[in-house]
Amino acid sequence: MILNNGDVLTLSLDKSSGSGFQSKNEYLFGKIDMQLKLVPGNSAGTVTAYYLSSKGSTWDEIDFMFLGNLSKDPYILHTNVFSQGKDDWATMGGLVKTDWTQAPFTASYRNFNANACVWSNGASSCKSDAPSSTNGAWFSQELDSTSQQRLQWVRKNYMIYNYCTDDNRFPQGLPPEYRMS
């Protein structure tokens, strides 16, 4: 449902249907922002997602998924990066089941902003392969040492699964995109 003169989009899920949307443009690279309001209350078994995906039978994808929860439990943010159309994601073993009596589950999205190069008919809207210095300062940003320490703390205290270290999943060795120097 589109609300507030097109400023807010809500998506609903019930036992027989779900919903989604996609941008009108395809992007080569850029900075993309979106505000999400997650499903309130008991939303166990639902996923509110925001993701970037290429097209084709072997696609690449970057996912930001918020796993539903029991009332008053924290939401779990699941991130995923995969290539060539292969990586199932961790589901905590399906231990918590969806309570469909709480349906419909509704999430809201607003303030989509893409500071990005549009890809259309095999060409980019940007004049070069690098973002302009005025609009693309984010392209060269890096975490400072304090931010790196905070990220490590979050990983240590909140990361529940990292498939880049899942030897059972990749007995033949990690794919090239997961190997870090």
TrEMBL record:
It catalyses: breaks a beta-(1->4) bond in the backbone of a xyloglucan and transfers the xyloglucanyl segment on to O-4 of the non-reducing terminal glucose residue of an acceptor, which can be a xyloglucan or an oligosaccharide of xyloglucan. Its main location: secreted. It is found in: Secreted, Cell wall; Secreted, Extracellular space, Apoplast. It is an enzyme of class 2 (transferase). Gene3D superfamilies: 2.60.120.200. Keywords: Apoplast, Cell wall, Cell wall biogenesis/degradation, Glycosidase, Hydrolase, Secreted, Transferase. Its EC number is 2.4.1.207. Pfam families: Glyco_hydro_16, XET_C. Residues 1-181 form the GH16 domain. SUPFAM superfamilies: Concanavalin A-like lectins/glucanases (SSF49899). InterPro entries: Beta-glucanase-like, Beta-glucanase/XTH, ConA-like_dom_sf, XET_C. PANTHER family: XYLOGLUCAN ENDOTRANSGLUCOSYLASE/HYDROLASE PROTEIN 8-RELATED. This is xyloglucan:xyloglucosyl transferase. It comes from Hibiscus sabdariffa (roselle).
